[in-house]
Amino acid sequence: MDYISLIFLSCALAMDAFAVSLCKGFSVKKLNLRHYFIVGIYFGGFQALMPALGYIIGISFASFIASIDHWVAFILLGLIGLKMIKESFESENCDTNANQFGFKIMFALAFATSIDALAVGVSFAFLEVNLSIALLLIGLITFILCTIALKIGNKFGVFLKNKAEFLGGVVLIVLGIKILIEHLFFNA
Fold first, then answer.
1. Contact 70, 183 (CB under 8 A)
2. What is the DSSP string of 72-110?
3. Which residues contact 19 (CB under 8 A, 6 or more apart)?
4. Between the CA of residue 185 and those of 69, 73, 75, 115, what are the distances in Å?
5. What are the tens digits of pLDDT across the range 157-180?
6. What percent helix, strand, coil does the chain show, rounded to 5?
7. Burial class, 96, CB count within 10 angstroms (exposed 0-12 / middle 13-18 / buried 19+)
8. How many angstroms separate the CA atoms of 38 and 177, rounded?
9. Which residues contact 174 (CB under 8 A, 6 or more apart)?
10. DSSP code of residue 114
11. For residues 12 and 4, what is the distance between their CA atoms, to the nearest angstrom?
């Protein structure tokens, strides 16, 4: 997977955490540096950790499905993308825990928003991906986008929440299609 695709993938994976960060920013009267680091480290850290775990899971059965690996990546990315698009149409307000930054809340939110990244990590096992670069980009881009979302949510509210999830879903589907086309037509 080339660097441009990895950057788009990183941005797409960050969109769930971006949406939650918007809510967190909206719910806090006055942000301080601690809020930015908590949001960035939890979401960025989990978004980088989960693909690594997914890769370990995927590599354990990669040899069994090597001939259809491009289909697996396409299906995983497509399903995750469709799920994100579906969620973007659900009218979900920020929950009552949005203004809380404690360990239990942040751990649960970071885990929940990074489940998609676990599935993407499984697809990494079937693709030519520099795993360390991919994990670094995913974590760093998520960190940056979530800290920006915290500020946006604090200043302007959460009107971007559903648009971010929709865009992330579309990007994942497009990446899945790109992988499938490359393997079917250009890796003969």
1. yes
2. HHHHHHHHHHHHHHHHHTS-----TTTT--SHHHHHHHH
3. 149, 158, 161, 162, 164, 165
4. 14, 16, 17, 31
5. 666 777 777 887 888 888 888 888
6. 80, 0, 20
7. exposed
8. 35
9. 8
10. T
11. 12
Q: Read off the pLDDT of residues 35-88 as tens digits, 9 standing for 90 and up.
A: 999 999 999 999 999 999 999 988 887 777 767 777 877 888 888 888 878 877
- Residues 79 and 86: their CA atoms lie apart, in Å, by 10
Residue located via tokens 């971006």: 18
Nearest Cα neighbor of 151 from 33, 46, 12, 44 is 33
Tokens 């009107």 map to which residue? 159
Which residues are CB-contacts of 155 (< 8 A; sequence separation ≥ 6)?
A: 25
Residue whose pair of structure tokens reads 């994100």 in the numeric block: 84
Beta-carbon contacts of 20 under 8 Å, excluding residues fewer than 6 positions away, are 43, 98, 109, 113
